[in-house]
Amino acid sequence: MATYEPVLLANIGRENSHTREVYEQTGGYQALRKSLAMSQLDVTEQVKQSGLRGRGGAGFPTGLKWTFLPKDHPGPIYFCLNADESEPGTFNNRILMEDDPHQVIEGLIISCYATRATTAYIYLRFEYPKAYRRLQAAIDECYAAGYLGQNILGSGYSLDIYLHRGAAAYICGEETGLIESLEGKRAWPRIKPPFPAVEGAFRKPTVVNNVETAACVRHIMEKGVEWFRGMGVQPDPSNPRDPGSLGPKLYCLSGHVERPGCYEAPLGITVRQLIDEYGGGVWKGRQAKAVVPGGISMGLLGPDELDCPLDFAGPGKYGCLGLGTAAVVVMDDTVSIVDYLHNSARFFAHESCGQCTPCREGTSWALKILSRIKAGRGRLIDLQLLLEIGDGIGIIPGSTICGLSDGAAWPLKNAIRKFRGEFEEYIRKSNPSGYNNTEPVPAMPMESVH
Amino acid sequence: MSTERVLTDQMVAEIKAYFPRYPNRQAVTLPALHIVNEHLRHVPLQAVVEVAELLGLAPAQVQDTLSFYGFFKQDAPGGETRAWVCRSLSCALRGGEEVLEHMCKRLGVRPGETTADGKLTLEFGECLGACEYAPCMLAGEELHTCLDESTADKFIDSMRSSS
Ligand SMILES: Cc1cc2nc3c(=O)[nH]c(=O)nc-3n(C[C@H](O)[C@H](O)[C@H](O)COP(=O)(O)O)c2cc1C
Ligand code: SF4
Questions:
Q1: Within this chain, do residues A372 and A443 fall inside the same structural domain, yes or no?
Q2: Is the CB of B125 less than 8 angstroms away from the CB of A127?
Q3: What is the CATH number of domain B81-161?
Q4: Whose CA is nearest to atom 20 of ligand 1?
Q5: Residue among B131, B85, B88 at smallest CA distance from A260
Q6: N or C end of chain A: which has fewer CB within 10 A?
Q7: H or E segment and range at residue A133
Q8: Structure ipTM over 0.90, yes or no
């Protein structure tokens, strides 16, 4: 792994890496020229052949998603670049947009060309002001260079890209919440189907892709399908439906490590490799007690699960929800898992959009119960209540509209099932006279969630 | 209630500049709210009414969208600078909540409140997407990284002495 040369991060750290001039010095916009010389179907076919899976969290095959667009649609077709990046622990999109915005935009233009989109919106979270400035400057440079606007590079293809800023709501990252928000409404995710490819923004066919996905598209078109398929985890030959985990990935590493940061590696390195070989190990010479494998929504790995491979299938084998955003958060052996779970529950109670009762009520009850446990008024029976919430909310059990609630559920389920002893001990010690109580208890005065 | 108009000609022009970007005007809701908020540091109800008029919507539609996002304050203008201290996991593991508590004490405010001199509104934020620099704070357009009590103090002092 040590010999791997970063591709997505190749320009990061170069002086003026955000300018078109520097970007073009390293081959920038050659992939666009090459793509425009191909048919739109051929570009889609290349992306399909590459095996690229979306980097935004769900890992859906990108080329396949594009083929869901209705054929011969009169248009317009819209493209939404998902730059809402708000999954706790995740910051790779930010680095790409701030320090190499042209890479993102080149990938976006190619993706729009392949999907016949004529307008693209970059839905950017509000808290990324530097990315906003850098992207806008890059877009302006592209119009000046003829990479955007009418008749791009004489190809006959025309495209406009607009930046659209969010307003600090995690749910706007969910693709249909994003679309509702773009349309000027509250960001309530839609029931699917219809999927956005059929009926998305402004009721037109729409593709939503992540920033890193677009960056990968740029490199696939430049370096080819074989290059991309040459790294990562190959599809399981005995399972024709397994797309594998191919290509490079940007891993975000934070928490209790010596060198937090964004590291590029072929998909499939293990948690331990990421921490030790890239992150310089757990900080202060301590041991890892628990690790979030892919943004807090994905749940929790215990100390004996650090050989978990970080590919699309890996975390699932350890009871986690999935690879998510591949954002790894490390907790050392001084961390209280009660505190971790309270922090996670507070996030989801704050960010639930409130549309589905099981999610709205479940996340806020989980927080109330955890606040009470934390304050020394927990009962052993509360663990059962928390698991009931965890098992009951989400698309997977079928009770809610979007995946936010699955993301709220997984930390509850993993933490309590993998660290049950610690929760029980905490409750016994902090509430010696009441831990066995099964009577209803008065609610705690709530801390402010909002 | 006064019905004096609050949207200036400049704000209206800025909002209208967004019209060609979208196939309908409702999509200009968020950009419009951001524009008003940048100028007034809040979005009073009268501004909602005027934005709705510009966009051809019922005021309730704009108000509905506004109220979905905790981002836009309506009652009174926020401080000259708005600062969000991250309280999500990566920052919490490196002392983010303690920094926020320390700043609250020093400034005499609770999260969400504005200092008496009107210079700073201090808020908690959820993950600011800068976890490699935990704990962090976004103040206006500037990201403050790897905070501790002393760097937080320096920031507070620089706010106080700014004119
Ligand atoms: C609650 C929630 C939040 C999400 N946030 C993001 C996000 O910030 N960025 C992102 O790209 N995808 C996010 N997603 C996934 C999107 O719904 C969608 O799958 C993705 O943008 C598709 O792009 P991709 O195929 O390139 O990964 C989120 C999903 C859920 C359920
Ligand atoms: S699951 Fe939660 S966040 Fe998703 S739509 Fe329902 S209430 Fe909203």
A1: yes
A2: yes
A3: 3.40.30.10
A4: A56
A5: B131
A6: C
A7: helix A129-145
A8: yes
